[in-house]
Amino acid sequence: MSEVDKGIELNHSPVLFLDERNNPLTFIIKPCADKEAIREMIEFGGGEVVSIPGDYGITLIPEDVALIGNDEVFSIQYIKECCTRNKLLNLNSYRLNTESRYSDGFEVMDVLLKYTSWSDALKGIPYERSFYLLLSSSPSDSSFEDDLGNLELAPGPSSSHAVGPHLQT
């Protein structure tokens, strides 16, 4: 029985892995013992698992996999901890590659949340961030509020008009 099967239940928000436009966040899971459990967590939270990274895909691998090259890869622990805490965490903290094609200040959350794409980030194309959705008042439909439960959203960027160029190193 895998670590995921033993300790984490699917009780996180069904919108945890959606961006602010309600589009699914995209992940690629490399082969590992917990692959199906991680897939289930992502899909339960509204995200999608694909086989080809594309412009916004985040590649997840177990921490014990040997890394070759400078591809951007992140620990599968990211999904486990987001589900446990019921909020999106800073993906930069889960980066496993030590070398990168991107500048030191590169914010991978900007790709995850689809503010910029991997290819645009490599080219250094500026982009604009918008605030994460913040629910400041209850909608009039009480069933909507009940569906949200204890959803907790991570704080968004400090400015809704911050421009973040990503420069190739």
UniProtKB/TrEMBL annotation:
Q: Name one GO cellular component term.
A: shelterin complex
Composition-biased stretches, type Polar residues, lie in: 157-169
Write out the annotated subcellular location. Answer: Nucleus; Chromosome, Telomere
Keywords from UniProt, A to Z, are: Activator, Chromosome, Nucleus, Telomere, Transcription, Transcription regulation
Q: Which InterPro entries match?
A: BRCT_dom, TE2IP/Rap1
Q: Which residues form the BRCT domain?
A: 19-95
General function of this protein: Acts both as a regulator of telomere function and as a transcription regulator. Involved in the regulation of telomere length and protection as a component of the shelterin complex (telosome). Does not bind DNA directly: recruited to telomeric double-stranded 5'-TTAGGG-3' repeats via its interaction with terf2. Independently of its function in telomeres, also acts as a transcription regulator: recruited to extratelomeric 5'-TTAGGG-3' sites via its association with terf2 or other factors, and regulates gene expression.
Listed under subunit, the entry gives:
Homodimer.
Q: What is this protein called?
A: Telomeric repeat-binding factor 2-interacting protein 1
